[in-house]
Amino acid sequence: MDIGRFHRSTLRARAKLRDFTDGETLAAEGDDNGELAIVLEGSVRLSRRGRLLRTLKPGDYFGELDLMALGKRQLSATAQTAGRLLIITREALYHLI
To answer: Which residue from 31, 77, 82, 94 has the fewest beta carbons nearer than 10 Å?
Structure first.
């Protein structure tokens, strides 16, 4: 799917890169920060109530429900290794639509 040159440049201008370290808490259950995070490098553990659900690798993402304002975060995300995320905020999404 091609989102178009305008949307790509808008997203590029508004998205943020975030480096993280091994063991760092990236998102906590119950937070409401309106962000989608795409794993670019490294790996991230997703858990609910302390129980591991899944390990994310580059290309995977989390926070899509929070981005769409559908409630508070349902999962916690913790860095399993050092890496980098691409963060898309709710505000950035609104500029695309």
So the answer is: 94
For 55-77, write each residue's pLDDT tens digit: 999 999 998 877 776 667 889 99
Structure tokens at 93: 């999404």
| pTM of the full structure | 0.83
What gap in Å lies between CA 93 and CA 75, rounded to an integer? 21
Minimal CA–CA distance to 84: which of 27, 39, 37, 35? Answer: 39
Exposed, middle or buried, 49 (CB in 10 Å: 0-12/13-18/19+)? exposed
